Amino acid sequence: MLAKVYSGAVYGIDAYKVEIEVNAAHGEPLIVIVGLPDAAVKESKDRVFTAMLNSGFFPHVGRTTINLAPADVKKEGPSYDLPIAIGMICTRGEISPAILHHTAIIGELALSGEVRRVRGVLPITLMAREMKLKSIIVPDGNAEEAAVVHGINVIPVKTLREAADILAGKREMNPLRIDATSIFKNTNSEHDDDFADVKGQEQAKRAIEVAVAGGHNMLMVGPPGTGKTMLAKRISSILPELTLEEALEATRIHSIAGTLKAHASIVTRRPFRSPHHTISDAGLLGGGTHPMPGEVSLSHRGVLFLDELPEFHRNVLEVLRQPLEDGVVTISRAAANVTFPCQFMLVSAMNPCPCGYFSDPKRECRCTQHQIQHYRNKISGPLLDRIDIHIEVPSVSLNDLSNAPKGEKSDEIRRRVTNGRKIQLDRFKSSPKLHSNSSMGSRHIQKFCIIEDDAKEMLKQAIAQLNFSARAYDRILKVARTIADLAGSATITQEHIQEAIQYRVLDRQLWV
């Protein structure tokens, strides 16, 4: 008897249909899997056989051939266990083949028959809906993320026996339905870290507010212990809330990467990723034989924080240039190219020298000029030009800390940031690909960055005197546009240009 079961696989951020054909025939007792299976898929026959026995099912005693189509695409991972088992049960006549024509199935099996979580359930559910299937059977731990997709019945199962009974009509089918909008309303917006805890560093906090409001990349430079990491960790508390569309994009990526928590339905807060400086370029960008998202994609619609920036390998930092510019990362393989979205805000921190105390008024720097220059040269000029805001975070005396008033609360800062973002979204209604000032191209800068004459003259003089690049000119205008938005100004004035230039001077002071 021949049975056909629909399942799916993920390549990049999209899913494609996999048809699992199970044929039970006479001959030697053998299970054969064809269709370019990897080691994990080949091993599934042993997991499936044992899981069926422990669930009270008896596999076919003759030759069983399992074909995974399309046969020219490599199949990876244990997610085909459950559909293969269902197909084998169907060949025994215990499940009607007709119901399998309208159902997709995905899940890994334990030897006991328990159904385990797998990666990529959300994009596979979206694919099943596009195929106009009526239902999809998923592991119970993945049910919430699949249920945010409307238009298809999501059936969570905990065991193989439960899945088989539902398909055989012995158990009631209870689809899980989730209203993603209500999840956002009920999400607690409070954060453990608040800017109210930060005393002093008012200039740095102002720069962070501008950076978040416009989605600008930023670099903080200062001696150890000045609060760079403390400030960075509190950026999450002032980020604007995710829209439903943005949340689904982020959830899709985290589902593929397997970083979504069990029973989590959707990403409700903007991601904040902080990889260690020993990370490889593949870990940062993504890659592998079967390409997976890296840290830049896991930061999509959120923040990527790189602490101790010069400690990252030079080649790792250089691969950031294209994603920062384009908002996508493309991984090329012999079979195909995979593109992952990565529209993130880069926040980085570094010391001014290897020992960390160059220009510190209290502690003497023991680094030689050559050591300092070598340390700073780890960050190339082209990469630095892609970072809109560079700010110095100086040391604060104990006396100043003890006398400083409590800082402004994150909620108040977020309110201004959100108002600034709303102004930008209204401005970019005719350009849906633009989400913030930082994503403007040259054409958009000319259209939207209306600058007063005296401010334009000031900018020209600064560019000539400080030897800024042409790219830096555009970055200054973008930052100035954000500063003007926070001030509620339709045009860019001298005051806005002056503050924006201040956020670009630091790199010239250090790297000349």
Q: What does it look like?
A:
This protein has 512 residues and is α/β, with parallel strands linked by helices. It folds into three domains: 2-168, Ribosomal Protein S5, domain 2, CATH 3.30.230; 195-411, Rossmann fold, CATH 3.40.50.300; 440-512, Helicase, Ruva Protein, domain 3. 41% of the residues lie in helices and 17% in strands. Strands 11-14-17-10-18 form a five-stranded parallel sheet. Strands 1-2-4-3 form a four-stranded mixed sheet. A three-stranded parallel sheet has the order 5-8-9, with helices on both faces. α2 (44-54) packs across α3 (81-91) and α9 runs parallel beside α19 (410-427). It is elongated, with a radius of gyration of 27 Å.
Low-confidence stretches: none
Main sheet record: 5 strands, parallel
| Side-by-side strand order of the widest sheet | 11-14-17-10-18
Strand content: 15-25%
**What is the percent of helical residues?**
40-55%
Classified by CATH, the class of the largest domain is: Alpha Beta
Find the CATH topology of the largest domain.
Rossmann fold
Q: What's the CATH superfamily of the largest domain, by name?
A: P-loop containing nucleotide triphosphate hydrolases
Overall shape: it is: elongated
Average pLDDT score: 90
Structural class: alpha/beta
Distance between the termini: 76 Å
Q: Using the 3D structure, state the CATH architecture of the largest domain.
A: 3-Layer(aba) Sandwich
**Total domains:** 3
Question: Over all CA atoms, what is the radius of gyration?
Answer: 27 Å
List how many beta strands DSSP finds: 18
Number of helices: 23
